[in-house]
C-alpha cells in the first residue's frame, strides 16, 4: 500500500496549465491513499486570497486515480511561520498512518507546503526514515514559478480536463530525495555519544543500519574486533605490540582498562564484582616478583609454601590464631594447605612489609569486600549512598591502577586511555 502525505500551502492543484506538485505525485506514483493537510487560514482564505476549500480536492485527485482514498485534515495553527509549529502535529498524523497501515510505504510531499511545512517533513524523514520517502517535484519549466498562470476555482473543471490531457504523456518531474547529509549528520552525532559512553554494540548496530556511510566498512570492522575482544577477554592487539614479551602484564592491563571503562560508564555493580579478582591477580604477580617461591602451584592453583620461611609461617599461624580466639581453635601447618586468595595475600604482605604503598592500596580494595560479597553472592542490590559506598568503589578502582604500576612500572600512562584513543580514531573516520 502507498500513502501520500501532503501539506498544502498557498498553492493550487496546478499552475501554468500543468500539474501542481501534489497532483503530479498522485499521477506518477498512484497512491492508494492521500492525506492532505491544510491550516485553517489556508483552507478558509481571507480578503487577499480565496481559500483552498474553493477547490474540489477529492474530485481533482480521483480524476487521476479514481480508487484513491482521500482524507483532508485541517487544523488551527497559532503561529504558522514558526518552524516548530507543525513538528508534533505532523509526527502524530504519520504515526497514526503507520499504526493503521503498518506495511504501507509513505510518500512525503516536500514541495506543495509552506517552507515551514516542507522543512518539518524533511526533518521527520531524517529522524524516522523507515518505510518513508521524500518526494520533490520540479516545476514544469525547471525554474521558479514567477509569472506563471494559476488555477482558478471558478473554472477548475475545464482547467482540470486540459491539465489531465496535457500531463498524461509527460515524463515525471518527481525526485526521491534521501537527504543523506542530514541523516548522516544525526547518525554521526549519535555514534559519537555512544562511543563516549563506551556502548560499542549500539554504535555498531547504528553504523550497520546505514546503507551508505562514509568509511562504514572500516568502522564496522574496527568496532566488531573491539567488541569481540571485550566479550572474550582477548588482549587488544595494541597491548600485545606494546608489551610483546610480558603476557601477565598484558592481561593485567587489559582488565584494568576494562574495569575503569565499566566504572566510567556507570556500570557500578559489575565494577564492584570484578575489582577484587583483578586486584588479586595483580598482587599475586607482585608476590611472585618480590618474594619468589612464597607461592607454589598445584594444578595451577596457588598455595602457601610453608617451607618458604619458618618466621613467616609462624607469624601467619599466630595471626590466624588471633582471629580464632572465640573458637579457641588452634591453627596448624597442615591447616595452611588451602588455595590462596586476596585476603591471604594481604596478610602475607602486611607481615612482610608492614605499611607500604601496596598494602595501603590493598586495604582500599579490602574495604569493599563485604559489600562485594553481598552483591555477588547474596544478589543484593547496591546502594551507593549508604556508608559512602560510591566513594569506596571509586577508591578501589583507583587502587587497582596504582597496584598495577607498582608491579609493572614500565606501563605508560597513555595505555590506560586506550579506549578513549580508540574512540577518537573512530570519530576521525566519521
* Gyration radius over CA: 36 Å
Along the chain, the helix and strand elements come as EEEHEHHEHEHEHEHHHHHHEEHHHHHH
Assign the CATH topology of the largest domain: Rossmann fold
How big a fraction of the residues is strand? 5-15%
Q: What's the β-strand tally?
A: 10
Average pLDDT metric: 86
Q: By CATH's scheme, which homologous superfamily of the largest domain applies?
A: Hypothetical protein VC1899 like domain (Restriction endonuclease-like)
Strand-pairing-aware structural class? alpha/beta
So, CATH architecture of the largest domain?
A: 3-Layer(aba) Sandwich
Pfam family, one: Cas_Csm6_CARF
InterPro entries: CRISPR-assoc_prot_Csm6, Csm6_CARF, Csm6_HEPN
Region (HEPN domain): 156-430
Family: Belongs to the CRISPR-associated Csm6 family.
What does this structure look like?
It holds the Pfam family Cas_Csm6_CARF. Belongs to the CRISPR-associated Csm6 family. Residues 1-155 are annotated as: CARF domain. 52% of the residues lie in helices and 11% in strands. It is an alpha/beta fold. Strands 5-4-1-6-7-8 form a six-stranded mixed beta sheet. It has a two-stranded antiparallel sheet with strand order 2-3. The longest helix is centred in the middle third of the chain and has 23 residues, at 268-290. The radius of gyration is 36 Å and the shape is elongated. Residues 142-150 have low confidence and may be disordered.
